[in-house]
Structure formats: structure tokens, C-alpha cells
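Hey team,

Filing this mostly as a record. A colleague (T.K.) asked me to run one chain through the structure pipeline before their review meeting, and I want the input and output archived in the tracker in case anyone asks later how it was produced. No errors, nothing strange. Just documentation.

Input sequence:
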Amino acid sequence: MKKISYIISLNILLAFPVFAETAQEKGLTIAMEQDRRDSGWMDRSAELSMTLRNAQGEEKKRHLRNMALEVDGDGDKSLTLFDEPRDIKGTVFLSHTHATNPDDQWIYLPALKRIKRISSGNKSGPFMGSEFAYEDLSSQEIDKYSYKYLRDEQIDGHESFVTERTPRYENSGYTRLVTWTDKTIYQPRKIEYYDKKNTLLKTLTFHQYQQHLDQYWRAQVMEMVNHQTQKSTTLEWHNDQFKNGLASRDFEKNSLKRLR
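Output structure:
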């Protein structure tokens, strides 16, 4: 996940503090510090509860498992397996994030007994009927965005940097993302997603952060609200485990049909 070019840039900024940072430089510096603090976790596994709500407030529940692998020099890999309800049990989603190249993503649909590749042009589509898009599930690699510092602001009692990220990869469904990053733990408290018309589309908020391995902070609750449809999706994380000994072979496309 570390990018040599950005590390060099950060060293230059720190070595010559007499020069005022531009908004773009400060935005990049914040992103780099967040990446530095969150490197070295190796792998993670967890159980999740997903709650889908329609505009009338009616709910549907889903239960799933997730595994993730930190990849040095490239984006992370993740695998999500649905356990409930019965009609989607056995569905598996696999994502290989890349820093600059298009992400590789596949989904195994047990009803069809086939693995379907998610095309680059379809990554802005909804993930399994939720308010999360396929591209929201990729790891946030530094090279995927350009950055701009906007201001400092307090959110829910937490002092935060407010920055703007502009996707640099093709086929993103967003023009920009505005992120509130906690100054203490360097994790997001809120992200606003703006659509291709530069209109606010969704807001993702992060709650109940817990620290793991005395270093890595993870939100236990994430809520995505779609302002245009009035729908929402809540993800609750349970039983987080780090450094389980997972390897690249656990995230291979050909293994999707065998997972249970």
C-alpha cells in the first residue's frame, strides 16, 4: 500500500517546513499519514450484519462473513460470503483492488452456479441491493485519488480534517468525495459522495471505533444513507480477528465455487 513517490514527497514537505503547503499538498499529506498509520495489519476476518431499509423504513437483514488481505505495493484483497437469508446463501464477492489499474471484482451466484466478473463500467452499481456501490468496497489506495484540504471542523465532538478526494480512475460513479478524518485516530468519521451531476448522492458515517492490536482503529458500525432514494444500509462488524495467517491463495477466483 505504500507508494514510494508519495513517501518522497512527504519527506520533502517535512524537511522544508518554511514553505506553506498548498491545499492539494496538505490534502495529500493527510491521506499519506492515514495510510502510514493503517499499514501492517496483514489480514482481517470478521462477521457482519447488514440491514437494508427502504424509503418507508421497512428492513431486510443479511448475515455475512468477510476476509481481507493487505497487499504490499498494490491494493488490498477482500472476500465476502453471504450466509443468510436462504435465497442468497452461498453468494461470494471477491475484490482485488489496484492502486492505478482498474480493480478486478467477481461475484459467484449459486443459483446460476457461475462466476460473474464485475465490469469496470458497472462498479458504480449497487452491491447486492444495498446502498454501497461495488467501488465503495475497494480499499482506498492513495494513487486512486487527487486530494484537496478544505478546512478543519468538529464532527460529533471529534476534531477533524475535511478534505476533498477526486477519483482518478475511469468509470467512477462520483465526481468527488468529501471526507471528515479524525485528527486523533486518522480514520474517517463521515464521507459525502457526489454524483456525476455534482449533487450529493450518499453519506457514509462511521461509529463505535475500536482499537485492535494497540494500533488499528476500525468502526464497528457503518451507515450509508442515499439522499436521493431515502434508502439506507447499515453494516455492523463482529468478532474482528487480525493476523490470521491468510494468504493470496485464499483470495483466488477459482476458489469461489468451493466456499461455504
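Quick notes for T.K.: The chain has one domain: 4-254. Confidence is low (pLDDT under 50) at residues 1-5.
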